Amino acid sequence: MSKITAAITAVGAYVPDFVLSNKVLETMVDTNDEWITSRTGIKERRILKDKDKGTSYLAIKAAENLLQKSGTNPAEIDLVLLATVTPDLPVAATAVYVATQIGAVNAFAYDLQAACSSFLYGMSTAAAYIESGRYKKVLVIGADKMSSIIDYTDRATCIIFGDGAGAALFEPNHEGLGLQDEILRSDGIGREFLKIPAGGSLLPPSHETVDNKQHYVFQDGKTVFKYAVSNMADISEQIMQRNNLTNDDVNWLVSHQANKRIIDATSSRMKLDESKVLINIEKYGNTTSATLPLLLNDFEHQFKKGDTLIFASFGGGFTWGSIYLKWAYDKK
Ligand code: UT7
């Protein structure tokens, strides 16, 4: 019997309608379009404005988009993994609610949190379940309502993040397509530089933590930038070397969209032509767990069966990694 590999067989996505442009941000904090564009590559981001909707709304929409596009019966899904740093509630996994709402009535479900690497780690988890032969359909959703944890008076963070969701279905493949190799890493040194200081067991919520704005994202951008550039470039080069891939062999770089300059540094280390580097940061900003599946959905029409995709991510924690995957289908 041929070896089982785990392939992506369908993708879907959703972003809210409301557009927050750099021009509008200029009226909210001391910043300007030129600074944001040249330092990050971001022009606008989407915001989920409805006060009564959380991350589950984004995730459900993305999953429904995938189900509808691919004609998948949700009752056949075995597992729903939701990669997110902004669950609806601290307790009661959002994935469980999402699975029920989309009709995945035979699935089990749980959330997975590794900051901006959540979706990449979720891909690895999904692939392991499929390769073992234990499950046949694993839905990985990356969704974040970043606007719920951003201080819109802090110019260091509010210009960066946006809301969105994307989803990918993993199924067994017998042609050797799908996930080929991965290198996943983490380093606890990162927790001081990118975090939400309060609301967890270390510093539970109190009037004081609210007054001190400790429930919002804090980022020491300069330090995170340095680690992101060196680690993401290193790991992407490593996965190419380990698999004897040259720049000609790689068709697409699917990189976390945190900063255009970080993506450029990674692709230049890989010696990739810019036509192979997928970018949509200008439209959505950094959507944390949603950046990779949003790229897959936006560029799905360009992928050909057998294409070599290199995924790369870096996020809080720190967490980072790279995945080498062979694309499994031509879009009809
Ligand atoms: O997704 C998870 C991982 N996260 C990342 O990978 C993000 C990594 N970090 C970054 O992308 C960048 O560090 C930022 C985009 C956050 C900041 O860019 P930077 O080039 O590192 O800027 P900086 O923090 O060094 O600030 C440069 C200057 C400072 O002024 P002085 O001290 O040189 O006078 C800042 O006060 O720019 C100023 N500044 C701004 N100016 C206009 C900081 N934020 C802004 C702003 N608008 N929004």
Automatic annotation (TrEMBL):
Residues 110-188 form the Beta-ketoacyl-[acyl-carrier-protein] synthase III N-terminal domain. GO terms for molecular function: 3-oxoacyl-[acyl-carrier-protein] synthase activity; beta-ketoacyl-acyl-carrier-protein synthase III activity. It is found in: Cytoplasm. Residues 257-261 are annotated as: ACP-binding. Gene3D superfamilies: 3.40.47.10. It is an enzyme of class 2 (transferase). Keywords: Acyltransferase, Cytoplasm, Fatty acid biosynthesis, Fatty acid metabolism, Lipid biosynthesis, Lipid metabolism, Multifunctional enzyme, Transferase. Pathway: Lipid metabolism; fatty acid biosynthesis. It comes from the Bacteria. Its EC number is 2.3.1.180. One of its GO terms (biological process) is fatty acid biosynthetic process. InterPro entries: ACP_syn_III_C (IPR013747), ACP_syn_III_N (IPR013751), FabH (IPR004655), Thiolase-like (IPR016039). Residues 240-327 form the Beta-ketoacyl-[acyl-carrier-protein] synthase III C-terminal domain. Its main location: cytoplasm. GO terms for cellular component: cytoplasm. The active site is at C116, H256, N286. The last Arg residue of the ACP-binding site is essential for the weak association between ACP/AcpP and FabH. PANTHER family: 3-OXOACYL-[ACYL-CARRIER-PROTEIN] SYNTHASE 3, BETA-KETOACYL-[ACYL-CARRIER-PROTEIN] SYNTHASE III. Belongs to the thiolase-like superfamily. FabH family. Homodimer. This is Beta-ketoacyl-[acyl-carrier-protein] synthase III. It comes from Flavobacterium arcticum.
